[in-house]
């Protein structure tokens, strides 16, 4: 089974995941824009098990539908590397696609909060868009 390692900018915080992504998507919500410092977040979900190396600082954010998301970032360089949703932490993890530093990483399949997408951002053909979170 293929494994991939994502890391922060300084390499102190890493996560190793196994297999292919359960899904790859982008989020244009304002919280993700602020969190990443970019105009969207690109995330890939992976099934457990996964291994975390290094020390992470956590930030918990409550989503629009009440879910609580635990974002883990490096306390040294500040890079967000991954997050889990409370209640589902053992089953999957969402990893920042950029943390893999792999230009051949699979493209997104879904785009959420498309109502907040910057007009100049063009999505790849075939991406399913949702105005907000899918039901």
TrEMBL record:
Keyword entries, A-Z: Lyase, Metal-binding, Zinc
Gene Ontology molecular function, alphabetical: carbon-sulfur lyase activity; metal ion binding
Domain CENP-V/GFA: 4-114
Pfam families: GFA (PF04828)
Sections of the chain in a coiled coil: none
Keyword Mitochondrion: no
UniProt-listed PROSITE patterns: CENP_V_GFA
Family per similarity comment: Belongs to the Gfa family.
Protein name: Uncharacterized conserved protein
The species this protein was found in: Nannocystis exedens
Taxonomic lineage of the native organism: Bacteria, Pseudomonadati, Myxococcota, Polyangia, Nannocystales
